[in-house]
Structure formats: structure tokens, C-alpha cells
UniProtKB/TrEMBL annotation:
Highest taxon in the source lineage: Bacteria
Enzyme Commission code: 3.1.2.-
Region of interest (Disordered), residue spans: 105-127
One Pfam family, short name: 4HBT_2
Protein name: Thioesterase family protein
Keyword Hydrolase (UniProt): yes
This protein's UniProt keywords: Hydrolase
Amino acid sequence: MHVHTPIKVRYGETDMMGVVYHANYLLYFEDARIDFLNALDFSYAERIEGAGYMSPIHDVEIHYRAPLRYGEEGFVRTSVAKNLPMRTVYRQQVYRAEDVVEDAAADKASDAPDGPGTEGTAAPARREPLLREGATPLVDALITVCVVERDTFKPVSLKRTFPDLYAAYADIAEEA
């Protein structure tokens, strides 16, 4: 499962060379992870923060290959790379907007299996955006997050605290 979150580079997000300042990709990634959770019908604000938890970043690995510039449009492609009881590793990649194949989205409503949390419902099939052949990410990142108690910052098990989210991630993770 991949979720695409659009980016339109604003002037204030660039450095003196007119390219996105490297740290701003972390902000794009944060927004994209929230979109990813929303696509699973799992609101970060309501379900995680509302229950007294937070999900801080534990580790970041980023490879910058080519820049986005002021005024350009792109997107963050987010997926779950690895699902562990105490951590989730997201793969987050930035592409140019033209790297999406618009009318070739994998929209197979008639033969698509129900997504996580849709058992027994008539939920519409998810449109899985496709990348054009030869598209390569401008930025490639693995972002590891954990879940902690808000008041103590004590780590908790995602598997025990949010078993439905853990199960959904288990179904879509790229590796076990």
C-alpha cells in the first residue's frame, strides 16, 4: 500500500539556491505519515494523541539524490517498510508530480480485496497510484517511529496498545 501526499514547494521552504532546504523534507514526511494513517481510517490526533500517546521519530535515514525547486510540484510516496511490535519503519520517497501515471492508477474495484478494517463493509477500493516507468525518487528515506506515553515518554508496544493498527501494518508491510 502506498499513499501519495502532494507537495508544492513554497519560497520559504527553499535555501539561497532555490532548492528545498534539506530539513524541510522531514516536515513533508510528517504530513505524509498523517495522510497514511488517515488512509487507514486511523486518525493520529484522535486515536493516538487522544488516547494519551505520541509517536516520535526514533531514527532517520535520508538519501538526497536530486532537488525540488521553488514552484515545483511533487509528492511523498509513503509505505510501511517494516512492522515491529515496538517500532514502525516507513519508506518515504519524494518524486516529481509528473512521475505519477494519472489514468493508470490501479483501480480494480471489482477484484480488489478489502483493505484493512473493511471486513464485511462495502468500502470502495483504494486507488493505488502508479509511477511511470523509470521514475526514480529525488529523496529516499526510512523513518523509524515508536509510540510513547505522552506524560512519561515511556515506550509502549504498538502491538499491545494499538492492535488494530499493528494488524493493518502487518498486512501491508514490505517485510516482516
